[in-house]
Amino acid sequence: MTPSYKAIHYNQGAIWWDETTQLPLIHTKEERNTWTHIIIDEGVKAVPPYTFFGCEHVTLITMYDSLERLENHCFSHNKRLVKIIWSKKLKYIGYCCFYGCLSLEAAYIPSSCRQLDYATFEKCIKFKILSASLATKLCYGVILDTKLLELSPFEGYERDGSNNHSINHWIKFRHNGQPHLQLHKICFGLNPTIEKISEAIRLQGNDSMWIKDDIGVTAFEYLVLNPTCDMDVVNDFVLRILDFFR
């Protein structure tokens, strides 16, 4: 008989239904599809590769603060994953760790993390927000094929000789205190206002306030893609751009 949907725990190198019922690390797809909440228990320092690959009904992952490493493909293809509660001591996120998590929209990486390996959030097609410390190294393709990449692909966007998308320069531009990073934070924040946007553009040295160097267009892209943005702010922004051309 297949168990009902419930939370499962990872501890001592094994997966548990509860404190006394241990499951094998190799599961059928039907068994994995009964899991909705993955809890990485206190005392666990690392989760091995592919441990929770393809858990299609998981919506929440909770990590206790002892966790330091997530290895490659730990949670890839968790298609319904929408929320992650991170360990405050996490240091490393392995390659393709959240690859293909189709419902994930945001990740707020703890400041303790020193590296996101390549393609961490690749193919997360709804992914819009990546918040990470400036000390966190972002490797190749971390946000490839996500909504975040679509926001402003012209900034340092290029192709390498193998015809793969190369976004290293683009990520550095976004991530190392460049002007657009502050603009991104304001426009994609919880309460964007025209006043805050104007000030960010003014500090960047843009005399025209809205148009020069496509900054106005970039801000507009951020605003319309922000799911929490009030449409009055967008409309006000458009009116100011139109006034500029009159």
Automatic annotation (TrEMBL):
Domain of life the protein comes from: Eukaryota
Pfam families documented for this protein: LRR_5
Species of provenance: Chaetoceros tenuissimus
Name by which UniProt lists this protein: Uncharacterized protein
